[in-house]
Description:
This protein has 203 residues and is of the alpha+beta class. The protein has helices at residues 2-18, 22-43, 46-68, 83-91, 93-99, 150-157, 178-186; strands spanning 73-78, 112-118, 121-131, 134-142, 170-174, 190-191, 198-202. It has a seven-stranded mixed beta sheet with strand order 1-2-3-4-5-7-6, sandwiched between helices. Helix 1 runs antiparallel to helix 2 and helix 2 packs antiparallel against helix 3 (46-68).
Amino acid sequence: MIELIGYIASALVAVSLLTSNVLRLRVLNLAGAAVFVVYAGITQAWPVLAVNLFVAAIDLWHIVVLRARKDIFKLMQVSNSDPLLANFLAYHARGIWQFFPDFDLAALKAPRCIFILRNLLPVGLFVYSEERPAIRIHLDYVAEDYRDLKSARYLFNRPQNPELFAGFTHFEAAGSSPRHADYLRRVGFAEEEGRKGFFRKSI
Length: 203
């Protein structure tokens, strides 16, 4: 049992180093350090306990700072021929394919493209078409380092952007993968009755 606690602590620390999301890294690393403190206390490995108490304190401080930080969000509409759009799609092609394997900007009729800016960095791309009274979502992608739902909540739940979707009643999206369907539910979408895999959210 004691060895198992040590293995769990090591696994948590190892997994934390594999994630690129800074907040998630700190949370997992804190959990690993906390389990190491328990392990060190049981085995009376006092140097290990002292080091991991220090690591846990540092992780906790960083988590508090990250949670308290106020990010500035903005939406920036771009044309389909904008070089930034082409570069973003090319750079994030693999990640986009994982969540939206059927996405093809060139095949869409009159798509609208919006960059989600976080502290002036283009961290997300929202591609949709206007099919009144619905906004039909074709792509809702956020770079891996910024997948803490803040960008999505700003886009879907904030009242600062009423002019973008004025005259429309709801968003529509297809859950293109189980992970994407779970994401849609987390940001307030509900699966349409009688249409499995299709979701909507009121504007």
